[in-house]
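Appendix B. Chain record.
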Amino acid sequence: MTGTAAESERDGGHLAPQPLSQYALLADGERGVLVGPRGEYAWMCAPRWDSDAVFSTLVGGTGVYLVTPAGRFVWGGYYEEGTLIWRSRWVTDDGIVECREALAFPGDPHRAVLLRRIMPCRNAAARMSVALEPCAAFGRHPLRDFSRQAPGVWTGRAGELRLRWSGRFPDPRQTGAGGRRLVTEATVEGGTSLDLVLEIGDRPFPARPPDPDALWRATEEAWHAALPPLDGTVARTDARRAYAVLRGLTGASGGMVAAATTSLPERAEEGRNYDYRYVWLRDQCYAGQAVAAAGDTALLDDAVRFVTARLHENGPRTAPAYTVDGQPIPDERELDLPGYPGGFDRVGNKVGGQFQLDVFGECLLLLGTAERHGRLDADGRRAAVVAADAIARRHDEPDAGVWELRPRRWAHSRLACAAGLRRVAAAGAHGARAAEWGALADRLVADTAAHCLHPSGRWQRSPGDPGLDGALLLPPLRGAVPADDPRTRATLRAYLDDLTEDHYAYRFRHGRQRLETVEGAFLLCGFVTALAEHQQGHEVSAFRWFERNRAACGPAGLYSEEYDVAQRRLRGNLPQAFVHALMLECAARLGRPWDGE
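Structure tokens predicted for this chain:
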């Protein structure tokens, strides 16, 4: 793409959305960027995860930040080990050029700092085209008040956001309606580099632009300090990348967003697209347990801190999900944008109005795990009492369940609560309450068996639904019932026979249609199946499940919620945190005999 093309092309083929497998994630805990194969920043919300987007070509908006070779190229890229520092790599007619990409880490909630360093490989010069078009509020507020403040320093506004762009590159030209797009070209000689630093925030910036060398050093050091070695895990490099993703999605509040994006369709033209830029308590509990299994406590502490605060604030009315600041999630609304192809662009989520009983069980599993690792304080123990009392009070109510469906008395929800009660009771810090909670867990399992045990001896989804469900593999893994319980083994056997194919796993059946024609393989279920086989001592099968689902990603190693087996495509929001969490847990547990911890 030439500099002239960078000026004229806004919504054309070059900046059109790409298959999700082609994107990499930059994240600093407070917000994230999706980087496409042509060096386009196609998605970023600022200043926070759930703010409006300033770069939104991913969903049909106009904001973008582009650094790309001026001529033909073949794309590639990779993460630097143990970080979310991405290297875009292009093989051109003139040679090879890389662009080092990162959000300065850890992030400031009010100021994003985007680092880009163009680095020709070997001795060939690189001709690069650069375009910056910030458009706040999903494209409604383009660049304004743009001016040169000093040599190599430019400032402007986009809506309520402030911008400062600095670097030793040629002065950009303003193009497009109202001068909304900035373009420039640069030739970077072999053996040298060119830095571009873009700051975006909702508060005044420091007086001087940041020094890129200092920012790169600080970001590298912070990532290396944040990532544990994860020795003893299988697929250690991928396990550390999964951990890096979870860390990148976790902010200063301790909350971990479910994904960086909104409205990426799970199935084209079917309306199943949702805003996941919020903190689902269940997903955060999965992540906390996964990192604990891998021997880490930093993200476990973050999860406990966020979950404890929500339980204390909301008690038995604790919602399934919150904003990163612990506030209620806004109602769903549509944007006046085309959306990602096949989707319908939406922000907000209806989950805040749901009751999901299993969330209380997952919270207890997290808190019990923290207690066993010596990471639970008095506030956390009181939060466990809140969650246990909520289960005692509400376990007979129909709930939306793990898949957020029409309220029923879902078997998984009640078994998850039994598992949580057993875990926190066994942790040994609650005295007489432990016996009470153990008895309540027994009653929940007995009641579920009375109403949700299939004639074949396996668990079924609900009293009125005899079907299988991938979620029913989880409670035995967490201790609701023993691994050698006949119901555990019968459920696993039936699930493998009916809801899996070629080592891909699905949630549940949708009528009589073929599994893959209704939704993609659910990667969470694939990793859960690996754990279930490992628990049963079927090690070869466990590794087959792990490797099959570990490969269901793009070049960046990121996982979405679903995987379209026929087309080998990622489906749904990206990256999906709970998939990375279960991948990490598998990597930790498969490296040793099953111990349930």
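Further analysis of this model is presented in Appendix C.
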